[in-house]
Amino acid sequence: MEVILKQDIKKLGEKDDVVSVKPGYGRNYLIPQGFAILATESAKKVLAENIRQAQFKQDKIKKDATELAAKLEGLKLTIGAKAGETGKIFGSVNSIQIAEALRKQGFEVDRRRITFETEPKVLGEYVANLNLHKEVKVQVPFVVVAE
Fold first, then answer.
1. Statement to judge: residues 56 and 88 lie in one domain
2. In this protein, which residues make up the domain named Large ribosomal subunit protein bL9 C-terminal (predicted)?
C-alpha cells in the first residue's frame, strides 16, 4: 500500500514522500497516528500542487534575499559604544545594535540572522555575518567607535 508521509520518519522517508509500506503498518500505525495519509490519485495531485506552491514561495524568498545582499555590498556601519581609556567597551556590541543600525540605513534584517566572527569587545573594525537565506549570506563590515 502506498502512503504520503506527513512528517519525517526514520528509516522510512521524509515529509511529502510517497512510500510503499505493508498494509498493516500503514492502516494500524502510520495513518491513525497522523504520520501519513493514503496515497490516492487526488491526494497525489494535492501533494504535487503543494510542492509547486512551496517551491514558488522559496524562490521568491531567495530572490528577495539576493536583492538585499546586493544592496548591502559595500555598506559600512559605524556603531557607537561607551568605552574606557584603554579602548575596552563597557559590555559589548550585539546583534540588536547592528540590526538597529541597518534599520536606520533602510534595511530590515532580523537580529537573529546576524552573527559575528569575533565578539566586539574593544574599539576597532569587525565583520558581521548576515544569513539572509540558507543559500544567501553576506558580510557587512562595521566600526566600533567611542561615544
1. no
2. 64-146
